[in-house]
Amino acid sequence: MSGRTTKAAENAKADLPRLMQALRDQGVTDQQVLKAIETTPRDLFTPDLFKDRSWEDSALPIACGQTISQPYIVGLMTQALTVEPRSRVLEIGTGSGYQTTILSKVSRLVYTIERYRTLMKEAESRFNTLGLTNVITKFGDGGEGWAEQAPFDRIMVTAAAEDDPKRLLSQLKPNGVLVAPVGKGPVQSLRRYAGDGKGGFRVEILCDVRFVPLLAGVAKDQ
C-alpha cells in the first residue's frame, strides 16, 4: 500500500469525511483545495508515533523540532493564496512535504525550500512515492527565496517572519499573492499580501496562528 499501513488506511476511511466536513464548517470552501486535501494521504507524512492521529484537524510533531500543520491551516492558507492552474508557486519551508503536495495539485509548478537536510530528503522520498513530477526542491535558506527562479505567481511561507518578508515580496510578480505568518511572539498573524500591479501590496490579516520561526541560514548536522 505504498508504505501505508492497513490500520492507517482504515482510520482514513473512517475519519476523512469528518475532517473534510470540519474544514468546510471553518470556511475552507474552495473545491479544488478541498479535493487536494481529500486525495492526499496525510498518514504518509506523519511519524509512526502519530499515524493514528493523521486525520485529526491538529498539528503534529515531525523530525527536527518542526510540525506538520493543522489541515485547517493548510486549507486556509492554500485557499487564501488563490492559486491558478498555471501558477508557479514558491514554498518556504518544505517540512514533511504535506503542504507542498497540496500545492502541487492546484498549480503548475512548486518550488520548495527547506533548511533541514533530513526533512528535505524525507519529503523528496514521499514525493517520489506519490509520483509528483511538478515539485522542484532546494536545500537552503528560505528567507532568501529563490531569486534564480523569480518572479513567482504565488509564494507561501510556512514559518513565521518577524516582520514583512520584503525579500520574498520582491520575488513576487506585480499582481502576485504571498501568504505568511508574521510576528515575533508565540502567536503570529496570518497575512495575505496581494500585489496591486504597481509595486505595492494590499495586506489582509486573516487570523492568529502559531508557527515555528523563520530562521536564517541552513541547519547543521540535520
Describe it for me?
The protein has 222 residues and is of the alpha/beta class. The protein has a domain at 63-209: Rossmann fold (3-Layer(aba) Sandwich), CATH 3.40.50. Helices cover 29% and strands 24% of the residues. It is built from six helices and nine strands, in the order H-H-E-E-H-E-H-E-H-E-E-H-E-E-E. It has a seven-stranded mixed β-sheet with strand order 5-4-3-6-7-8-9. Strands 1-2 form a two-stranded antiparallel ribbon. It is globular.
Brief overview:
By secondary structure, this protein is α/β, with parallel strands linked by helices. The protein contains 6 helices and 9 strands.
- pLDDT averaged over residues: 93
Alpha-beta content class: alpha/beta
| CATH homologous group name of the domain at 63-209 | Vaccinia Virus protein VP39
CATH class division of the domain at 63-209: Alpha Beta
CATH topology of the domain at 63-209: Rossmann fold
Strand content: 15-25%
Annotation, overall tally of beta strands: 9
Measured between the Cα atoms of the first and last residue, the distance is 29 Å
Radius of gyration using CA atoms only: 16 Å
In the sheet with the most strands, the strands line up as: 5-4-3-6-7-8-9
Unreliable stretches covering 5 or more consecutive residues: none
Give the H and E element order: HHEEHEHEHEEHEEE
Q: Tell me which CATH architecture of the domain at 63-209 applies here.
A: 3-Layer(aba) Sandwich
Total count of helical runs of at least 4 residues: 6
Outline: globular
- Major sheet attributes: 7 strands, mixed
- Helicity, in percent? 25-40%
